[in-house]
Structure formats: C-alpha cells, structure tokens
Amino acid sequence: SNSSHFNPECIPGFVDNISFFCFSLLCLIGSLLGHPQCLDYGPPFQPPFHLEFCSAYENFGCCDQERDNSIAAKYWDIMDYIDPRGHKLCGTYIKDILCQECSPYAAHLYDAENPRTPLRNLPGLCFDYCSEFHLNCHSAISLLTSDKHIQECCETNRTHFCDLLHLHDEDYCFPNVLKNTALNRNLGSVAEGRKGCLQLCLTEVANGLRNPVLMVHANDHTHRMFIAEQVGVIWVYLPDGSRLEEPFLDIKSIVLATPWIGDERGFLGMAFHPKYKSNGKFYIYYSYMDKNRVEKIRISELKVLASDANKADPRSERNLLELEEPAANHNGGQLLFGVDGYMYLFTGDGGKAGDPFGKFGNAQNKSTLLGKVLRIDVDGKNPDGKPYSIPPDNPFVSDPKARPEVYAYGVRNMWRCAVDRGDPVTKKGRGRIFCGDVGQNRFEEIDIVVKGGNYGWRAKEGFECYDTKLCHNSSLDDILPIFAYGRNVGKSVTGGYVYRGCESPNLNGLYIFGDFMNGRLMALQEDKTNKWKKQDICIDSTRACAFPGMVSSYSKFIISFAEDEAGELYFMSTSYPSAYAPHGSLYKFIDPARRAPPGKCKYKPVPVKTKSKRIPFVPRAKTVLELLNEPSTTKPPKKSSTPTAAIPTVSSKKAKKTPFTKTKASTVKTASGKKRQKIKAEVKPHKLKQEEKVAPISRTTPAPPLPKKRSSHLTRTKKLLPKKGALAKEKLEKRRKEGRLSSSF
User: 630: which residues sit within 8 A by CB, 6+ positions away?
Assistant: First the structure.
C-alpha cells in the first residue's frame, strides 16, 4: 500500500524497530504507484448518466448515478450539523473529500489497490490542502469518519492528522492528482508502455491443457466454453470457471497426433451450427490415417446427445469431406460459419516447403481443394450425392476447371481465422473474415478474405515475390495483406480476433493477434483511410496490472485466440508445444485503463443440467499482487538518522492517544432526538510543513525461462518421444526452413 494508516510517533521506538520491514516494503510501494483503479478493485469507467453532485468525474471516474446520489445524501447529512458560516467555509472541502470515491485514482487515495490492506477512512490529501482543511474545519473530522483513533488523536493535532492522510507520492494526493498533466493526459485510454506498446493485462482462465488448439462457444446463451486439445479431446468449461470431469467429445483413438514437438497434425478445428440450440449439430476438422496408411484430413458433422447437453454422440458422426494430405505439415484446420450461414473451411497447401506440387503449386490450382478457402452449405444436399451443397453465388461455380467449393485461393496455411461481429452500435465491419497466413521464410501476413480472391501464394509471400517467375506473370488483382511482418518481428503468425466485447470498450475495433514462435502479442488499428497500423501489446507491467486476479506473464508459444459468447477475447498458449504435454493455458485479455460501467455487461447464462462432476478451477500462475506481496530478499539498509516514512502494517501495540482540547460548540437535536454538536468554523493563521517524498522503486516480473533444446527431428517414419523438459525455439525454426514445420504449432 502507498500511504500511512497511523502516525509512528504514537508508538515509541517504532521507526528503529521496523527499519528492515520498512525497506522490504519499498518495492511494494514503488510497484503499486497509483494507477487508475476504483474502490471495488476494478478500472474506472465512463458513467452512463450525468452525475449531479460529483460532476467533476462525470466523464470518467468510479461513480455511477446511484453512487453519486449516495455521496450527495451523505454530504447533506453532514451539512445539517454545520452552521451557516461553516457551510460557506467548509462545504467545498467536505464535498471534495467525499467525492474522492469517484476519482479515477480512488483506490490509490484510499489504499484500496490491494484488497489485503485495510481501507482508509479518508482519502490521501496533499499536505498544504490538508493543513488548510484542518485549520478551518477540523471539527468536521468527526462527521467525516467514525474512526475513534482519528477523532481523538487528530481533531486538534494538525500534524498528526495530515501525517495520517499523507501519500508517499505527492503527485497522487488530492488535489495534486487533478493538476498533474502526465497522469491525466491520456486518462481512460489504453495505456502505452515505454516503447509505445499497448499495456493490457491477463487473467488465467484454464490450465493443464494438452496443446489447446481452440476455444469456441455454442451461441446458445449458456456461456459455456468448449476447449479442444490437439490430441482429440474437447472439454466443457462452465460460466463459474469449473470444468466438467467427463469430456464433451473424446476421439483421440481416431485422431492422428504424436508427441513430437511441433507436429501439426491432430484435432484442428470445430464450429457449432448457427442453429445448434435447436438442431444440436456441430462440425470438426482433424487428421487421421486410413486403412491404407494414407494420411488424410476429415471434416465431419456430429450431434449432441439428447440425454446430456454436455456430451456429444460419437456414433452420430457423418463425414462431409476428406482430403488426402501429401505431407505432414500445412494441414489448415479452421472451421467457421459466416454471417451468411454458410460454412467456411481453410485448408493448407499440402505441406513440405514452397508448395512444390504441380506446375504452379496446389494453392494456385483451383481444381484442387488444398491451399484454399472453401465455402459449403451444410444444410443442403447435392444431386451428385455429396453430403453438402454449393452456395449458388460461389465465385467459380461456372468454371469447369475449378472446384465449385472454392471461395478464395492462393493461401499457404491460414492458421486461425475469425468473423468480425461488427461495431456494437454501428455494426461497421460485421461479417469480415480475418486470417493469419503463415509464411515460408520471410513474411507472415494478415488477410481479410474476399470472394474469389487470389492471395498470391506461391507467387508471393506477404507483399514480396517468392517464386519470381510466377510473381512476374501473376495478376495485378491479387489480394494483398492488410499487414505483413518480417523475421525481425516474428516467425509464425497466429491469427486472432477483432475485439467487440463489452468489458473493455477501449479495445473495440482492435484486431488482436500474435506470433507462435516468440510469443509476441500485437494489435492492428484501422484508420479512416482503411489502412492498418500495428502496435505491440505488452503484458509485463506490474504497475498497470496490480489488480486482484490479474497476471503479467504467460506461456510463450501462442497457439490460438478465442472469443466467448459475450465477445470477450482470449488466447491459448503453452510452454512446451507437444500434443501430449499438459502445459497449455487459457488467458483472458483485460484493459486496466478503462472498463464498462457497472451492470452494463451483466448477463444471465441459461442454466444447463450437468451429470458430470464439476472440477473447480485452480490457478497456477501467480497474480501480480501475489508477486508484489512476496517477502523481499534484499538486505536491510544501514541505520540512518533520517526519519523513515510511515509504512502500513499490522501491529499488536495500540497507538498512544494524543492529548487534545475540545472545540467549543453548541448542540442541536437530530431527527431521532439525539443531541449532536453544531460546529462553528474557526480561522487561524498557520505555517505549512512539507513532508519528504519517497522515491518509488519499481519491480518487474521475470518472464519464465524457455525449456532446453532437444535434438530430435520431425519425421513421418520414426517416432521420437521428447526428452523430459527439452525444447528449443531454434530447433523449431530450423524445421520451418526445411519445410517440415510452418504452421503455428
């Protein structure tokens, strides 16, 4: 905590006895430098309605209309006991002090940044302001707080009173906090780190997962989350954070997956039918080996059990499409439904390196389904016996040399695509499909899928030529990426989502994505000219993320992004990218600078009867507050003659009562008939005492070390089990260049 709850002078020898304890907590004080936070431990917000009383905070703060009315009522209760002269002299002081509950820095002013510390009765006041208030209105202290110690120790002792309300960093005390341009310049906007990155925070939602490749919701108002592991198991997570003991679906006996590091085969995609609530249908995309030992991709339809809403019926599987895979890599894997109700499937180019299949490669060959975006109607039936029909407006239905399923082509291996829900108010952007297309060895790219579009591969990689001959002969109508980055930024893109949730309004419209190889998180912002600007996202700030439950580190191999039913954004990552290693976690993005007004984002999930045992979530990652509260191993400083600033702590000793004199006052009767003092204002000359300022000490959370290097190679004929704890990003990169690894895990 940042400020004092009592005066150390009240306990003889206090400073000498706690010199080491004081030094140990300096890191905590520095790290918890005031950041925008409310008394309920959440970020500030923009009140949905006008604030009549604490109007200074009606644009951004910690009070809604109900809280504002409550503070106003408390103010008038106090003013009933103050004479007319006191109204004029003390009214503004009392209003300002009460309204600090609405300040964006309320938690800092009241020592509420850490829920483990006791809440202050009065906010932190700057010494000059405090002295003036005490001089003019000290008798009002007993009306502002019921704390007997403050009333007895400080009503007549200005120094003790202002020491109690002193904050170590005087930039944050009231009213200085209102005048500090550095603190208020971008208040309420997404905070920017020192290097210009967007400062966001995370909460850990799930852990112990084996390469979690996706998380989807059923859009059935139950707000359940379905998380799939690469081995072929889908788990159900309930709105309370618990997981059902029995999986939704377990087909690991069918799915082709190995423990090899970076193997791209396995369970890769899943999508619920838009009418799942009524028809119970969903779709999956996975690797398998047929009876002739041929590796294939299978897309199939299944149904949920009629007797259990949390269990799929594996016997209901109906094959929609099977594709032979010529190599172990570039398997695609995305399934999704567009706003048009049709299913979109994203396939890889067949694998190896450089799309070496045929004269132009698979991606440019519209007669094959590899290296494509496909669109089919899963509710229709084809006259030729196919278990789906072709949407009549597919771009190549009249081209005899093209497969009618093809919607777009020229893609290498799109790893993770998402549909934009559109702006919550204007619906701008609704229906756009964003994809991350993994590059060969120079560029990673983000694309927006358009009907009939050619995305250039293998002629182009990013904005540049890859196959020079094909590139020079390619059409000028090729669809260019909205963004591409080189190896100095990352080496394997993982596509993300456009944020359209409710809880973090600052993030609306940001496309958030990442890089698998280096764990980099990034965001794209579209400007008025439809150009996209990239900013890095930083998660490692202990200062900005010092909220309950928030973490500032994560497992670095980013496998996938996800969106829950309410539109909030998540990502999945692991510290060891093997399909059988239970080191994967799910994290939720949080904007620490601003949240939605209380009550705006509440929803009531439709209850679902559960037959399986619920397993409560047990977090593994240490929160920022837990890290800050860990005992310091730093040696104590040498004894100094300089007085040490008071540090809040728990003590069994009681503070001595400071002698005080009673103020002359008349008495009045309250509505209940009880007598209470009628306070008279007093004006006396005074000298102000300026306290010393404690320099903040920052502390950052170290990133978890990467696992050690392993020596095995990815092959299709020899199964090599990973050595315990062995992994190296260099080895993964080597395989990328050899064409044996090029998607995102």
Answer: none
State how beta strands 493-498 and 511-515 pair.
antiparallel
**Could you please report the per-residue DSSP string of 35-70?**
-S--TTSS--B--SS--SSSGGGSSSBS--HHHHHH
Question: Residue 527 burial by CB count (10 A; 0-12/13-18/19+): exposed, middle or buried?
Answer: exposed
Interatomic CA distance for residues 164 and 131, integer angstroms: 12
> Where do we find the tokens 């408390």?
74
Residues 702, 684: contact at Cβ < 8 Å?
no
Tokens read off for 736? 């990328």
Give the model confidence (pLDDT) of 50-66 as tens digits. Answer: 999 999 999 999 999 99
Q: How does strand 532-538 pair with strand 521-526? A: antiparallel
Paired residues of 378 in beta bridges: none
**What pLDDT, on the 0 to 100 scale, is given for residue 529?**
93
Residue 311 near residue 346 (C-beta atoms within 8 A): no
- The CA–CA distances, whole Å, from 692 to 33, 165, 643, 688, 715 equal 16, 14, 9, 13, 66
Q: How far is CA 378 from the centre of its chain?
A: 34
Q: What integer pLDDT is reported at residue 101 of this predicted model?
A: 96
Q: In what order do the strands lie in the sheet with 267-272?
A: 267-272, 281-289, 295-304, 312-324
Q: CA-CA distances (angstroms) from residue 289 to 27, 71, 254? A: 57, 68, 8
Q: What is the rounded average pLDDT of the residues 692-710?
A: 35
d(CA 640, CA 289): 74
3-state secondary structure of 733: helix
Give the contacts of 118 (CB within 8 A, at least 6 positions apart): 5, 111, 648
C-alpha–C-alpha distance, residues 733 and 737, integer Å: 6
Cβ pair 459, 467 in contact under 8 A: yes
Kindly report, residue by residue over 240-274, the tens digit of the pLDDT: 999 999 999 999 999 999 999 999 999 999 999 99
Query: 586-612: per-residue pLDDT in tens?
Result: 999 999 999 999 999 999 999 999 999
Q: What's the pLDDT score for residue 358?
A: 92
Report how far residue 611's alpha carbon sits from residue 593's, in angstroms, rounded to the nearest whole number.
Answer: 41
First to last CA, the chain: 42
Q: For residue 513, count other CB atoms closer than 10 A to its CB.
A: 30
**Which residues have CB under 8 Å from 530's CB, separation 6+?**
none
Q: Do residues 409 and 372 lie in contact, with contact meaning Cβ atoms separated by under 8 Å?
A: yes
